[in-house]
Amino acid sequence: MIEIKNKVYYVGVNDRNKALFEGLWPLPFGVSYNSYLIDDDKVCLIETVQVDFFTQFIENIREVIGEKPIDYVVINHMEPDHSGSLALLKKFYPNIKVIGNKKTFGMMCGFYGIEGGQIEVKNADSIELGHHTLNFYMTPMIHWPETMMTLDVTDNMLFSGDAFGCFGALNGGLIDSDIDTEWCWLEMIRYYSNIVGKYGTPVQNALKKLANLSIDYICSTHGPVWHQHVAKVVSLYDKMSKYETEPGLVICYGTMYGNTERMAEVIAKAASQAGLKKVYMYNVSKTHHSYILRDIFRFKGLIVGAPTYNNGLYHEMDVLLSEIANRDIKNHAIGWFGSFAWAGKAVQKIGEWNEEKIHFEPVGVPVEMKQSLTPETKQQCEALGKAMAEKLLYEA
Known about the structure:
Layout: E1 2-5, E2 8-10, E3 13-15, E4 20-21, E5 25-26, E6 31-33, E7 36-39, E8 43-46, H1 54-65, E9 72-74, H2 80-83, H3 86-92, E10 97-100, H4 102-112, E11 118-120, E12 126-128, E13 133-138, E14 148-152, E15 157-159, H5 184-196, H6 200-210, E16 217-219, E17 225-226, H7 230-241, E18 246-253, H8 259-273, E19 279-283, H9 289-298, E20 299-309, E21 312-313, H10 315-326, E22 333-340, H11 346-358, E23 361-362, E24 367-370, H12 375-395
Parallel strand pairs: 8-9, 9-10, 10-11, 15-16, 18-19, 18-20, 20-22, 22-23, 22-24
Antiparallel strand pairs: 1-2, 2-7, 3-6, 4-5, 7-8, 12-13, 13-14, 14-15, 16-17, 20-21
Helix pairs in contact: 5-9, 6-7, 8-12, 10-11
């Protein structure tokens, strides 16, 4: 097992077989379930792993401490990919005490029927392990109500739960200074935007609690241990939770026979010719929405378009707009377009989504196309792309 520092060890596992995280989000690089073991006068485990990996998990633990008992297990977050091994762990270590908060224990009973053997902590409480001292900070709604973080004040090591994590299994190395982390950054943004993104205010509240703490390591439940890039990781979370963006445009479209796609191509070309360099296009039926949402979090401009379908909006676009609304994304500009064969509804429906649920700033004039692209609708598409580019470049 890898020793991070001063008898703090990594005992987590990799999952390279799961296709969808939470049954929703693609895992092209797999995912890690991170757990940490502090081998002190009192042995303390921080998080467990998904129950499917329990055999490997116990082997990892015993590689560090042999037959020694574990005194405590800290559960910062009760999602089953982190707490799932608790019931089996208690069979191996019947005297282990679970450290958590009041909401932790309610969920622990509900998920696993576990009661008793608990140490309840509140914000800023401490527990001494011997050489190491653990302080606890309540950080609710990142992204469940029971979430908290644990700081080893001896080595300035923050065990942050799901915060600051990313998709992707660990390829042998663990600490960021020892591995190539280039793949991590977009996967961190995709993780945040899809799972944590709705909870910008709770993230800001948590960052304020952490602001005056000395943090040399961030040990998340997914992805690398951050050491060299601690400041960058915290800054990225600060930016995303404030819904800060960079000048760029995401164009999302649905298309059945290619006519609506032609509108999107004209809009993209016009935006590019107006001087906007960062233009990203997605077919909502081809690209998994997690990647689209990732880039919507990154860039200020969004233009969406789709055909009318069954006197309503094309299904995949309807789903995407629902996902955008669900995340309470702020500080964005939006334009839209649509097409129809005999009765137009798409443009109207997108406008209703924005007015009632999404609340982005409208830019340009919406474009509605009947059947196929004409010189007139082409000019309208060009005007929409140009208007969005000028808006984004002016505010840059």
